[in-house]
């Protein structure tokens, strides 16, 4: 027997100006539900979530919440004004009986100390604080609008684990396919103002959506053919049966009205890159490159790679690891401290920056695409009217004079893509290109990059995007070390045995004892003998792990005191930071013990 819903939106209607944004939308959320809300950019997903959260009112329909049910909402752009620190912001969201220790642990897990000043936060840090505030009370329902935006891979995977073990019901809006696949159990598709529900996760959604759209196309075709038949009968049929004539004429008018009023499925983005002349075979070569800034830890240490024409290179790592620094050196924007960077010949590079800083918020959409010169865009040497090019990227003709600053995040992302792809190039450099793009636009971007004749270097936290696009991945290994792996993100994980880790964990793993034999020769490792250091580590690591777990348990017990934060905020913060450090050491020790144990088993098989 199905549980009654905690939250139920029924027949929700909302008009914005002349646009009927929502027209009969519905969402029901029962205890333990994991619902993903999907739809095109601009379809009204965020608006529907705000109605569910009680932030805005609808024009029509009903909103029901079970008495006593608690709801927490994560907006796309959290506002921390009025709070001295991130810790104060998170604590202010707690209710009577909520655990402040959990709030501090969530802040630590998301890479914050609680002492950050809101005015100095980046967009990603503000989102982390807002996530901690939403998750800390463990509400009955969590409404999360793009929770992975501006998070790095370690934080995304941490969030997946945290949400996976929560008892709260979830409603998620996200463009991250892997995130949706792992967390969703039901899908609500918002399309042309109405909703359809699938009682399966995201893995089955896209095939189901395509079947629905195909059925609509078939129905539209049948309707068109029926209109043709009725018009033919009206012109050439028997005229004596006047009553039936009138009835069929009325039926024909009804069919015409239905076709006229039928809202068609939205169009698709049409992308084509204006490719420049071919570059040389070698695009970029790095040999023994090193880079550091002042007295800070090194960003790049003894890194070498070769990028050839046609490669699709993904760069992955936690925030602050130096991905953009490495990207700038590989493209000649930044010089290394030592080592050599050699760029190929005849390069025509086009860059798309993640902060959208190259967009002037005061310029119009048309001027941003044409450079302020007329109303023509040149694509691959061919002239195209700017309005037609705008339509290819799902912009309306009346938006031509719209200031860039008035566009949504998704629209600004599409504008940057449109401008980048209109510029002749043989090297595309994309820094977080997937931010704010809907799933359909992501699909088409991936197809474009697959067909692009030049070279692509992309920094991304989107695992599915990297799997679909990258021919090789450069991953952060800790302490300024970077390693080149063949294949996409999943291939990199298979070769490393782990995904991208937070900087603290990567640093602990980098300093742990490890065998230096190249990973490409596992059989050679198996035939070798274990060193004394490896044997000693294999014997002593279990005791070290047990000791760390005892220390963690003691810290957790101390932090469980609900009065500790009030009495001794500095001591609370110090213990929380120490607990995170002990956890990183324990994880690195467990990983090293597992590697050595697998090596020992392999040696025993060879003996």
From TrEMBL:
UniProt GO MF annotations: ATP binding; ATP hydrolysis activity; DNA binding
Family of the protein in this entry: Belongs to the ABC transporter superfamily. ABCF family. Uup subfamily.
ABC transporter domain ranges (all copies): 7-217, 284-502
Keywords assigned: ATP-binding, Nucleotide-binding
Coiled coil: none
Reactions catalysed according to its record: ATP + H2O = ADP + phosphate + H(+)
Family matches, as InterPro entries: AAA+_ATPase, ABC_tran_C, ABC_transporter-like_ATP-bd, ABC_transporter-like_CS, ABCF_ATPase, P-loop_NTPase, Val-tRNA_synth_C_sf
Organism superkingdom: Bacteria
Record Pfam families: ABC_tran (PF00005), ABC_tran_CTD (PF16326)
Origin species: Falsiroseomonas algicola
Name of this protein: ATP-binding cassette domain-containing protein
